[in-house]
Design goal:
Residues 47-126 form the Cytochrome c domain. Residues 1-26 form the signal peptide. One of its GO terms (molecular function) is metal ion binding. This protein is mostly helical. The chain folds into two domains: 1-32; 51-124, Cytochrome Bc1 Complex, Chain D, domain 2 (Orthogonal Bundle). The protein is built from five helices and no strands. The protein is globular. The protein starts with a helix and ends with a helix. The protein binds heme C. The site of heme C has 19 residues, from helix 3.
Amino acid sequence: MRITRKFVVCSVLVIISVLASTTLIACGGGTTSTTTTNPPTTTTAPPTTSPGAALYKASCAVCHGENRQGVTSGTTVIGPAVLVTSPTITKFTTEASLATFIAGHQTGKNLTADQNTQIAQFLKAP
Ligand code: HEC
């Protein structure tokens, strides 16, 4: 059989369509089973890169939980875990008043005024 140009073009098209359909089937099957849904993003997620966030994690998280939301109950080896967000945090109407509180509170006493301000900013941030 003489291999004509038309035959080659047709064969290539057939091969492409076969490959395309198998790929589609493979992809179709794959996407349904491997699709991952992103975890819901919370609007109150703390900015993890701010200096205040790092200070909070190092100095306050032991009693108040890993994130700004704190924990509502339970105890730690050091003392009771306390919620440090609203409504508690709203008691301190300004960052400055919160920073002043922190300066006299627990590990905050060991930090500088600037560091306490950074933590206050972090706790007050939306
Ligand atoms: C040793 C455990 C401990 C550490 C460390 C600690 N706290 Fe507290 N925190 C407490 C306890 C217990 C309370 C509740 C009693 C009180 O006000 O002292 C509290 C209360 C608070 C309150 C609420 C105060 C009020 O009057 O409503 C804020 C805000 C707060 N902490 C922030 C911080 C920050 C910021 C840090 C880090 C610099 C920190 N805490 C470190 C144990 C701790």
